[in-house]
Amino acid sequence: MELLIIFIVITALLLMMGVEVAAILLGLMILMIALLGLTVVFFLIHAMLLLKTRRCRAVLKKVEKHPKFNYPAAFYEAEGEVYPNVFPCEVVLRNRLYPVGKECTVRLDEKRKTVYDTNAFVCVMLGISLGSLSMIGVYAITRVLFV
To answer: Residue 30: its pLDDT value, please?
Structure first.
């Protein structure tokens, strides 16, 4: 909400200073492309980290707040230790996606002491593909409108 107010104030100030609306819209589109690019880079980094993991069997032990990051995370027991999932738990359908006691296959990152479960893997793949497509789409719209 605060970001929206900041954007409105900055836009109002730019309009008062005589900046054209087209230039403001071009700036917003460039900002959107940059933010989508950062999102794709974030998921690409996780895809590279996934390459350094290994598959193992694990049992979902609990879903609770991550002690380090203060978001709800799934904790899996693999090879005698309990590891948190890299990404937060989904709020919707949590009982179906994370049934406690379920045995599953995870990707274990021993260096970072975390796991990538199936949902995290899907998030990484969808993040790369949908983020890239969105960035390309916003870029194409920007080229059509402003060139």
So the answer is: 95
Q: Which two tokens stand for residue 5?
A: 């107010």
Instruction: Please give the radius of gyration of the chain, using alpha carbons only, rounded to the nearest integer.
Output: 21
Domain extent listing, the chain? 1-147
Q: State pLDDT tens for residues 20-64.
A: 999 999 999 999 999 999 999 999 999 999 999 999 999 999 998
Number of residues written out for the chain: 147
- State pTM to two decimals: 0.85
Q: Closest Cα partner for 53 from 98, 114, 129, 124?
A: 114
The CA distance from 108 to 28, in Å, is 40
117: left (phi over 0), alpha (psi -120 to 50) or beta: beta
User: Degrees (nearest 5) of the Cα angle 113, 115, 117?
Assistant: 170
